Amino acid sequence: MNPSPQPDKAMSVALRHLAHGRTGDKGNRSNISVIAWHPALWDLLVEQVTEARVAKQFALRHPSAVKRHLLPTLQAMNFVLDEVLDGGVNDALNLDSHGKALSFLLLDLQVTVPPHLQAHLVRPER
Fold first, then answer.
1. How many Å apart are CA 8 and CA 22, to the nearest integer?
2. For the whole model, what pTM was predicted?
């Protein structure tokens, strides 16, 4: 979906329009960083991209814990998700037990953006 600004009302968009992500893994733990595309979006990300919402987004992977670490100087946050990799690279029967692709699941999280911040959304070109 290519979001179009709604100058008079809030709109719901995927997190990828507000931030990008980096992901890593170690054992059965995944680290997912969320980095704001624009500093003006930081407070909104802190408010809406919470540990509880991330845990719900990953419910099908059954994380035993989700911890958020804020990095305000970088307008970034790092999520550590425990036990989401089916045992880890060496233990999983899953064909892709690496955490590298999990940022895409997080970047699908819906975020409500008020009108005054919509100009900062990144919209993919068609």
1. 33
2. 0.83
Say how far apart CA 117 and CA 120 lie, in whole Å.
6
SS3 content of the chain, % helix, strand, coil (to 5): 30, 30, 40
Among 81, 72, 69, residue whose Cα is nearest residue 106: 81
8 Å CB contact between 57 and 109: yes
28 and 20 Cβ atoms separated by less than 8 Å: no
Which parts of the chain fold into alpha helices (H)? Answer: 42-48, 51-57, 102-106
Q: Can you name the residues that pair with 15 across neighbouring β-strands?
A: none
- Return the CATH number of 11-85+94-114, one of 3.30.360, 3.30.1490, 3.30.1360, 3.30.70: 3.30.1360
Query: What does the pLDDT look like over 23-64, one tens digit per residue?
Result: 877 777 888 999 999 999 999 999 999 999 999 998 988 899
d(CA 3, CA 120): 12
